[in-house]
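Hi Q.,

Before the meeting this afternoon, I wanted you to have the dTDP-4-keto-6-deoxyglucose prediction in hand. No need to reply - just skim if you have a minute. The sequence and ligand are here:
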Amino acid sequence: MSLIEFNINKSDSGSLIAINEKLDIPFNIKRVYYIFDVDTESRRGFHAHKKLKQVIIALGGSCKVMLDNGYTKEEYLLNNPQKGLLIEKTMWREMYDFSKNCVLLVLVNELYDEADYIRDYEQFKSFLGI
Ligand code: T46
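Predicted structure with the ligand bound:
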């Protein structure tokens, strides 16, 4: 997993970041969704994907994302619109510690398909053969 740093166009009138598929992120973008209005006590995620790849960017505010490959866990703080968290397939994810007004933009390589989700942790481990 990695944090991708995007090029930023800064000027006296503000900043602009462009994200080009295959150039700035390592896949073609088939879907975009955003998460907002999250209660600061809420926890989201608690699933893995069989095939899906995503990049998550905190456009505003912050949250933490815990990624678990079945063996090790890593926690990331997303609080910078210049950085995107690349989540490859088969990573268990949990999102928490949302700040007020946190807005997450998510870029995805596939359309929505509930069959791609693994929402049970033991099934996740079995899927990995652990
Ligand atoms: C992920 C994390 C980071 C749709 O109808 N279309 C969509 O494209 C998505 C993403 C969700 N939904 C529906 C499915 C649920 O009824 O929206 C509802 C909330 O989705 P979910 O509970 O999966 O939300 P999160 O925040 O736990 O997870 C989402 C993504 O689903 C997931 O792929 O990795 O954000």
